[in-house]
Amino acid sequence: MPRIPDERPLSPQPGIIDELRRRLPTASVLSTPAELAPYECDGLTAFRQRPMVVVLPETVEQVQTVLRLCHAARVPVVARGAGTGLSGGALPLEDGVLLSLARFNRILHIDPDNGTARVQPGVRNLAITEAAAAHGLYYAPDPSSQIACSIGGNVAENSGGVHCLKYGLTVHNILRLTLIGIDGELFEVGAEALDSPGLDLLALMTGSEGMLAVIVEITVKLLPRPERAQGLLAAFDSVERAGAAVARLIASGITPAGLEMMDNPAIRAAEAFVHAGYPEDAAAVLICELDGFNAEVSFEVMRVRELLLDAGATEVRTARDDAERLNFWKGRKAAFPAVGRLSPDYYCMDGTIPRRELATVLKRIEALSEHYGLRVANVFHAGDGNLHPLILYDANVPGELDKAEDFGGDILELCVQVGGTVTGEHGVGVEKLNQMCVQFDSDELTQMHAVKAAFDPHGLLNPGKAVPTLHRCAEFGAMHVHHGELKFPELPRF
Ligand SMILES: Cc1cc2nc3c(=O)[nH]c(=O)nc-3n(C[C@H](O)[C@H](O)[C@H](O)COP(=O)(O)OP(=O)(O)OC[C@H]3O[C@@H](n4cnc5c(N)ncnc54)[C@H](O)[C@@H]3O)c2cc1C
Q1: I need a surface site. Which of 45, 176, 221, 414 has the fewest CB within 10 A?
Q2: What is the 240 CA–ligand 1 centroid distance (Å)?
Q3: Which residues of 295-323 are buried (b: 16+ CB within 10 A; e: fewer)?
Q4: FAD-binding PCMH-type domain spans which residues (predicted)?
């Protein structure tokens, strides 16, 4: 089944474009085909749709105006940050307004004493760390897209990154949000303090994929830069051994700042791309970063080296200096574009599994790769059990995209089968709607629809994304779910 947004009847209201032009500065409303083209997709480029109109407001009042107009005319609205999302969350709607927050790009205040910053949603993730550096502080969650992605998008997706193993996801690194509801009402959730009374609406808003409200300001936590960061790179002759080493390392009580794994196809692609000196014959490498006070890091480096060698590493390198540590990361951070050179197209999946299942799941993915006749490279946040299989395909070969999608769907269902989830950090968007039917039963989905309706009774904010309709699940379930058990058609079993 193609992963398209849930169907809804279209109700084009072209009159709203004139109304928007009357209320916003001329340069803030785009509607010609050439102006709309750059907004027709996000990072999930297989899905494209031009919006009816794009608006680029610059003030909170302008966002309120747009939402009030859309609310009154019952026009759907899709918020957009930098458009780097990988699950189609910012995919526009043919009869909808695309609300870009790109011009909300100011860091409003840095409070070094409290370790916080107030920022607008269009600020780039990395720009927060750059601005905080003068105070010896940084913003911990670091998606690989951090040079481009916006903090508003990070909140809406609850994004993760290499350092989230030790420091938590976006939800653990924000304190307060200012939002605007579909009726134009401005409201705040969370507080400057670590806890706030009442229901935890901050957590509810984080990861809500633009379905509940539009974020217009964020208070983030800033952390002191660690005194020292040390990198290690371990090679393994089997993926299973590398997976088992991850579980042992975490169980030892040491929490690395980052612990990432790449399998052989990913190692070779990254090496060819950035020449980081990776062992190209290894079946898998683990890249581990330890940070903290000098003495603590020295002790942990010794322990981690022993643990990795004990777990069967064929080689463990300790970075001699910061340049070598960054070199270890260079290939990992560039792994997606590097893999992009192996094939005309790739499809990046994102699922999470319990760490103990790493080896089994990687074996199953290998078998699925043979079953579908599509190559796959694995790059992932191993410490978190967050997988990113990159499925290689050629969109110009008829049927390959469909095969890649089915392959990806099977991987996500496999994640659920072993006790994991269908998303680790990239969100559901349009991509994983079907797998949400596998993860949740109809009662749970009904509750999610009820929460959405409480904030957005007419279903105007990013409709058709993130939470599937029960109708869709009924259709999909007839194919894949039987007495609550997943059936994998013609898949090899282990
Ligand atoms: C090469 C590459 C590497 C990546 N690596 C990672 C990674 O390591 N970890 C990770 O988590 N992700 C990663 N991503 C995915 C992506 O960068 C993140 O999901 C990011 O948070 C999206 O931010 P954005 O500003 O581009 O949001 P967009 O793509 O514009 O939007 C994403 C979602 O957020 C909603 N949204 C955006 N802004 C707002 C707002 N102000 N108010 C309400 N809703 C809003 C949109 O409606 C949409 O549903 C990667 C992407 C690429 C292309």
Answers
A1: 45
A2: 31
A3: eebeebbeebbebbeebebeebbbbeeee
A4: 47-225
